[in-house]
From TrEMBL:
Gene source species: Isoptericola cucumis
Protein name as catalogued: Tryptophan-associated transmembrane protein
Region (Disordered): 130-201
Segments of skewed composition (Basic and acidic residues): 167-188
Lipid biosynthesis found in the keyword field: no
Entry keyword Transmembrane: yes
Source species, domain of life: Bacteria
Keyword annotations of the record: Membrane, Transmembrane, Transmembrane helix
Membrane-crossing segments per the record: 33-51, 58-80, 107-130
Length: 201
C-alpha cells in the first residue's frame, strides 16, 4: 500500500494572481494520510507475526485487519468525493481553494482499495488457520549439552582378557625388593639409608 499511496491520486487546476491556470496534483499520502500510516502498521504487524508468540500473533492479526480496513475506507472516501482532497492540496500548494476545472481521479486510489481488501482477507485466512500455528523457532536458544554419567561398573576395568592392554591394569615394573623403582617414597628411603636409588635402574 505504500507504493500505491505515493503517486498522484487527484489532480485539478486553480487560478492565481500570477497565472490563470495552475495545475494541482495531490498524492495519496497528502490526500489521505491515514493510508500511509495504515501501510506502515501493516508492515510492522507482518514482522511481528513472524517472530511473536501465539497470543501476540492474534493481536498482530487484528491490527493488520484494522489497518487494511482503514486504508480501504480512506481510498473509498477519496473515490466517492475527491473534491475536498483536491481543494486541500490546492490550498497547501498555491494558497487558493477555488478549483477552475473538474477533479480527475487516477487509478491509484482503486489499487489502494483493492490492496486494503486483500490485506483484510489475508488476516481472516490467517486467523482461520490459527489452530495449525507452530511455536516460534528455538534455534537461537542456548541448550546445555547433557553430560553422560559413568557408572561404577562402566568405570571399573576388568582384569580378564577384556581388560588386557588397558593402562590402568598393566603391572608396573618392580625393583629387586618388589618395590616400584620410580616410587618417590622408596627413593627417599634409599637416600636416608645412604643408597643411591639410581644405581639399580
Amino acid at each position: 500500500m505504500l507504493a500505491t499511496a505515493a503517486p498522484t491520486w487527484v489532480s485539478s487546476t486553480v487560478s492565481t494572481a500570477l497565472e490563470s491556470e495552475v495545475p494541482v496534483a495531490v498524492t495519496g499520502t497528502a490526500a489521505s494520510p491515514a493510508v500511509g500510516a495504515a501501510a506502515l502498521v501493516v508492515v510492522a504487524a507482518g514482522v511481528a507475526l513472524a517472530i511473536a508468540g501465539r497470543v501476540a500473533r492474534w493481536v498482530a492479526l487484528a491490527v493488520v485487519a484494522l489497518s487494511g480496513a482503514l486504508a480501504a475506507a480512506s481510498a473509498l472516501g477519496i473515490l466517492l468525493d475527491p473534491v475536498p482532497a483536491a481543494t486541500s492540496g490546492a490550498s497547501s500548494a498555491e494558497g487558493v481553494t477555488d478549483l477552475t476545472s473538474a477533479v480527475a481521479v487516477s487509478v491509484w486510489p482503486w489499487l489502494t482499495l483493492v490492496a486494503g481488501v486483500l490485506v483484510v482477507g489475508a488476516a481472516v485466512l490467517a486467523a482461520a488457520g490459527a489452530p495449525g500455528w507452530g511455536s516460534t523457532s528455538g534455534r537461537h536458544e542456548r541448550v546445555t549439552p547433557a553430560v553422560p554419567q559413568r557408572s561404577a561398573a562402566a568405570g571399573a576395568s576388568p582384569t580378564g582378557a577384556d581388560g588386557a592392554g588397558r593402562g590402568q591394569d598393566r603391572p608396573r615394573p618392580a625393583g629387586d625388593d618388589g618395590s616400584d623403582p620410580h616410587d618417590p617414597h622408596d627413593a627417599w628411603d634409599a637416600l636416608t639409608r645412604g643408597t643411591d636409588p639410581s644405581e639399580d635402574r
